[in-house]
Write a structure and sequence with these properties.
mainly alpha, 85% helix, 7 helices, 172 residues
Length: 172
C-alpha cells in the first residue's frame, strides 16, 4: 500500500503543471475514481481542509489522504511521492532554463503552457461545484465571495475566514 500511495502521488506530481489547484482534478481522479480511497464528498472536505491549513494544497492533500489510507507511513509515502517528481523536475528545469532562457523556443514553450494552466484551474473549480453548491445558501455564499474577491478585490483570506464564520453560525 505504501508503494501504491507513493507511485500514485508521484504520478500526480510528475504530470501536473500550475501548482496545487491544477493538481486537484488529477488527485480527484486517482483518489476517488481509480483507487476508491475517498468518496467525492470526503475529497471535497480534504480540499477545503488543505486550503485552510498552511502549506501547498497538493502536499496537504497527499498527507491527509496518505494518513487516512495507511496511517503515519502512508502520509509519509504520499507526501514524498507528490514532492519527489516536482523537486527533481524543478532542479533540472531550473538549470536548463537558466542556461537557455534567452532562446526563442523556450519563450514560446512557456507562452503555450500558460493557457493550459488556466484551463486546469477552471476544470478543478468546475469539478467541485456540483458537490459544493448544495442549496441556495451555499450558492449565495459562493456568489458573494466571488464578487468580493474578483469584483471588489478584497483579501481572499479575509473572505475565506468570513465565509467560514458564516458557515459556523448558519450550520452549527
Amino acid at each position: 500500500m505504501l508503494l501504491r500511495l507513493f507511485f500514485t502521488f508521484a504520478k500526480i506530481g510528475a504530470f501536473s503543471f500550475g501548482g496545487g489547484y491544477a493538481m486537484i482534478p488529477l488527485i480527484s481522479h486517482e483518489v476517488v475514481n481509480s483507487n476508491g480511497w475517498l468518496t467525492m464528498s470526503e475529497f471535497i472536505d480534504v480540499v477545503a481542509l488543505s486550503q485552510a491549513t498552511p502549506g501547498p494544497i497538493a502536499i496537504n492533500s497527499a498527507t491527509y489522504i496518505g494518513y487516512k489510507v495507511a496511517g503515519f507511513w502512508g502520509s509519509v509515502a504520499a507526501t514524498s511521492g507528490v514532492v519527489a517528481p516536482s523537486f527533481t523536475i524543478m532542479l533540472i528545469l531550473g538549470f536548463l532554463f537558466y542556461k537557455y532562457r534567452d532562446v526563442a523556443l523556450v519563450k514560446d514553450i512557456f507562452r503555450g503552457i500558460r493557457p493550459v494552466v488556466v484551463v486546469l484551474i477552471v476544470a478543478a473549480a468546475l469539478s467541485v461545484v456540483p458537490s459544493t453548491l448544495t442549496g441556495l445558501v451555499p450558492g449565495v455564499i459562493a456568489a458573494v465571495s466571488a464578487a468580493l474577491i474578483l469584483g471588489l478585490r478584497k483579501d481572499p483570506v479575509m473572505v475565506l475566514l468570513a465565509a467560514g464564520a458564516l458557515g459556523l453560525i448558519l450550520y452549527l
